[in-house]
Amino acid sequence: MDAAAALAERVRQAAARAERLRILGQGSKDFYGGAPCGAPLQTAALRGIVAYEPAELVLVARAGTPLVEIEAALAAQGQMLAFEPPRFSGGGTLGGAVAAGLSGPRRAYAGAVRDFVLGAQLIDGRGRLLRFGGRVLKNVAGFDVSRLLVGSLGTLGVLTEVTLKVLPRPAQELTLCYALSQSEALERMHRLAAGPWPLSASAWLDGRLAVRLSGPPAALRAARRELGGEELACAARFWDELRDQRLEFFARAQRLWRVSLPPTAPPLPTEAATIVEWGGALRWVADPAEAADLRAQARRHGGHASLFRAPDKAEGVFAPLPPALAELHRRLKTVFDPAGIFNPGRLYPDF
Questions:
Q1: What pLDDT does residue 351 have?
Q2: DSSP state of 113
Q3: What are 52-71's pLDDT values in tens digits?
Q4: What is the CATH number of the domain that holds 116?
Q5: Are residues 22 and 152 in the same domain?
């Protein structure tokens, strides 16, 4: 019996006795979402790259495959995971990256996790092995279930295999820095985004805006002349530390909030330490005075705030859903996991 079949049998047994299961890869994102509960269902045996076609920009790998293995294989061919999934604690698996739906600094300029998922294989709550999507780059009519799984935190089933679109690594990268206030930095990000520059990341913290450009050397030389600023030494390390939350800002934060906003939203009226990414669309806020105020501010500007990491999550992790959307979530949960055995409470307390 192969690893996927063994997991499917375990799921069928759990469903028969309504036993809750905690889907577990490397546990690098256990802090994210509601507290994990249930008997561990390990995916470590689902490991390895199934198929990789560099010329087609397509990779298929089992869900338990460590991200470091996938990224090493891609780097050998001059390619990458363009959504730059965070590798907390230097770990993480492909299945965990897709289930969490988290993207790194390049997300605003290259796309999010779901933009690169072409297909997926899943064990549902009845123990059935289901396949969605495919292995080719094409537009598909209908409901794209494979992308629905992105960000579901394992509440719909056990990912066993994922098909991804990959991209070539840039020929060269350059990071420019500017001393600016947050308001000035947001304005600068918007101007740069409207121009012809090959942006691939932006981040403001501690009064400095860092802008990464990626592309051919000639294009970066032209950008350097036109945009000014100071070239950042050790830029690759900076972006890696931001991606994996190893900067001092993250180490100091006891209650870290992730605020998603329209890029044009002004600075949030808070005195808490803040990092601004994605051209203004993502704001990290450390230890705000009032969580309710932060959530209200996010709503006022057309966004939402999530409690990303905290020792106590009594304030609730994700922003409450409108009733109609909450009902849709419940129906999807019932279709995929009728006995409610997968990762209970990771997304919302009641499903």
A1: 78
A2: G
A3: 999 999 999 999 999 999 99
A4: 3.30.465.10
A5: yes
